[in-house]
Design brief:
By secondary structure, the chain is an alpha+beta fold. About 35% of the residues lie in helices and about 25% in strands. Helix 6 (about 180-190) packs antiparallel against helix 7. It is flat. The two termini are about 35 Å apart.
Length: about 240
């Protein structure tokens, strides 16, 4: 299988991929804007895989890490991607989809070309924030779009419905055999920085809301660090799913 590398991927880069097919013990993937790659089953998940379809099925989007780049072949891994890396890539993809959906009804068939021009100057996922925060909004927009569309796009960029509070979510599992286990877990999860809910089977969801993802991620890291420290002190087993 031939594989291109138009954007000069490097080893350890984390990329969004789409599963194309599974043949034998190899998963063939389309790398977002970077051609094709493949992944052997041992890089899908640590340990024994009982059903490969629990992890990869055709058309599913997954976040992978670049292991090796060889002539005609890009080797990828799913199991080596951290939860933080996966979250960052998926959030960036979500932002890019939002931008595309915002401008497509106005720019129609010109949308792909406009997006390419924007990507030459800005991170596509952060372009809308750049426009909204700049005192020269129109000056930025007019570099990329027809003059007749400026005001219409400006209104879209500042539309409230596209800018709800950003959310970051984690799932953790807490287990203990201590007689004071319930009280210990309550102490571990006590925080005013996040919303925590019990999901059953010793699992809990942690939800952080903020005006942007960077702030939300930063708060989440602090919350998780506090939980880890308290769990260690109380000898409660912690697993971040």
């Amino acid at each position: 299988m031939e594989s291109e590398n138009p954007l000069n991927l490097k080893e350890d880069d984390v990329v969004l991929c789409t599963v194309k097919r599974v043949e034998g013990t190899t998963v063939f993937l389309e790398i977002e804007e970077n051609g094709q790659g493949n992944m052997i089953f041992s890089e899908v998940s640590p340990g024994r895989i009982r059903n490969i379809r629990d992890f990869v099925v055709p058309n599913k989007k997954i976040v992978c890490k670049v292991l090796r780049i060889k002539p005609g072949n890009i080797e990828l891994s799913l199991r080596r991607v951290t939860a933080k890396e996966r979250k960052e890539v998926l959030e960036r993809y979500k932002k890019e989809k939002i931008l595309t959906n915002m401008i497509k009804p106005i720019l129609k068939e010109k949308t792909p070309d406009i997006l390419e021009k924007i990507k030459e100057k800005y991170e596509l996922a952060d372009f809308v924030e750049e426009v909204r925060e700049s005192p020269k909004t129109i000056e930025i927009i007019k570099k990329f779009v027809p003059k007749s569309k400026l005001e219409e796009l400006k209104k879209i960029f500042f539309s409230v419905k596209h800018y709800k509070e950003k959310e970051v979510k984690e799932i953790i599992k807490l287990k203990t055999n201590s007689e004071s286990g319930l009280d210990d877990i309550k102490k571990i999860l006590k925080t005013d920085k996040a919303e925590i809910r019990y999901l059953g089977s010793s699992k809990f969801s942690i939800l952080v809301k903020a005006k942007d993802y960077k702030i939300a991620n930063s708060i989440m890291e602090k919350v998780l660090e506090e939980i880890k420290e308290k769990a260690k002190k109380l000898k409660v087993q912690l697993e971040v799913k």
